[in-house]
């Protein structure tokens, strides 16, 4: 839908909502640059596009036909995005199919795929928006006694890791985050939204535990009225 002067630039279907970490893992930043800074002659290219428009349009069918023939072929090398291996394989084979239809040499597609892989592997992860607000809540409490009844602090050892576990619930946590930063528009609007956001995010300073990820911890077991969530800070973090 079009509202006022803004226009949608894309349509995304999602089961649980597209939160920033989920959206980020589905996007790849691509830098475009002209070779040696030289500009191509635009008029001649546009003229040729008009003359050969019929060939360009029908080429898509030939490329898709070739893709169907090779789509089950194994990927060369490893997939740099394991959670989207099927999508990555499809893109690679689409590029190979286009190269075959366009009579490109075989190494043409493979050289581009090598650049894709390097860009995905070398990309630096962006910090989650909630990392700093949560750190402001928990870091001051690591060396002090917790007097706030909204938190429970325990020293735990799990999977060979020793550290501090803070246990709370998303409703109480959201209230504290809102008091800390009342104008922070990055904060979810409901405890359920915060829970989904926490479980889909990747944090560098701590780990998120709950009854499913840490079923052996009594502190995190759910009840009819409580859904505790834990924030684990390793001692060597």
What does this structure look like?
The protein has eight helices and four strands; from the N terminus they run ααααααββααββ. α4 runs antiparallel to α5 (106-122). The protein is elongated, with a radius of gyration of 25 Å. β1 and β2 form a beta hairpin. The chain folds into two domains: 30-122, no CATH class; 131-234. It has helices spanning 20-25, 42-51, 53-70, 85-101, 106-122, 131-138, 170-180, 191-200; strands spanning 152-158, 161-169, 207-209, 228-234.
Task: Provide a compact summary of the structure.
With 237 residues, the protein is of the alpha+beta class. Helix content is 41%, strand content 11%.
Low-pLDDT segments, ≥5 res: none
What is the helix tally? Answer: 8
Mean pLDDT: 83
End-to-end separation: 47 Å
Shape: elongated
Number of domains: 2
Q: How many strand units?
A: 4
Beta-strand fraction estimate: 5-15%
Sum up the structure in keywords.
elongated; four-stranded antiparallel sheet; 237 residues; 11% strand; alpha+beta
Topology (elements, then pairings):
Blueprint: H1 20-25, H2 42-51, H3 53-70, H4 85-101, H5 106-122, H6 131-138, E1 152-158, E2 161-169, H7 170-180, H8 191-200, E3 207-209, E4 228-234
Antiparallel strand pairs: 1-2, 2-4, 3-4
């Amino acid at each position: 839908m079009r509202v006022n002067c803004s226009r949608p630039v894309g349509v995304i279907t999602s089961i649980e909502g597209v939160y920033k970490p989920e959206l980020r893992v589905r996007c790849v930043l691509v830098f475009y640059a002209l070779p040696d800074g030289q500009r191509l002659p635009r008029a001649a290219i546009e003229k040729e596009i008009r003359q050969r428009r019929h060939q360009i349009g029908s080429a898509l069918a030939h490329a898709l036909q070739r893709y169907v023939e090779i789509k089950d072929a194994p990927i060369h090398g490893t997939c740099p995005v394991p959670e989207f291996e099927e999508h990555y394989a499809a893109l690679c084979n689409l590029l190979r199919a286009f190269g075959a239809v366009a009579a490109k040499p075989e190494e043409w597609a493979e050289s581009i795929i090598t650049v894709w892989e390097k860009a995905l592997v070398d990309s630096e992860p962006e910090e989650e928006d909630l990392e700093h607000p949560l750190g402001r809540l928990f870091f001051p409490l690591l060396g002090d006694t917790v007097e706030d009844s909204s938190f429970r602090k325990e020293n735990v050892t799990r999977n060979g890791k020793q550290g501090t576990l803070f246990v709370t619930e998303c409703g109480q946590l959201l209230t504290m985050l809102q008091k800390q930063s009342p104008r922070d528009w990055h904060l979810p609007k409901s405890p359920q939204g915060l829970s989904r956001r926490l479980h889909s995010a990747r944090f560098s300073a701590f780990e998120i535990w709950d009854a499913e990820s840490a079923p052996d911890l009594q502190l995190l077991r759910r009840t009819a009225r409580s859904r505790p969530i834990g924030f684990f800070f390793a001692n060597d973090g």
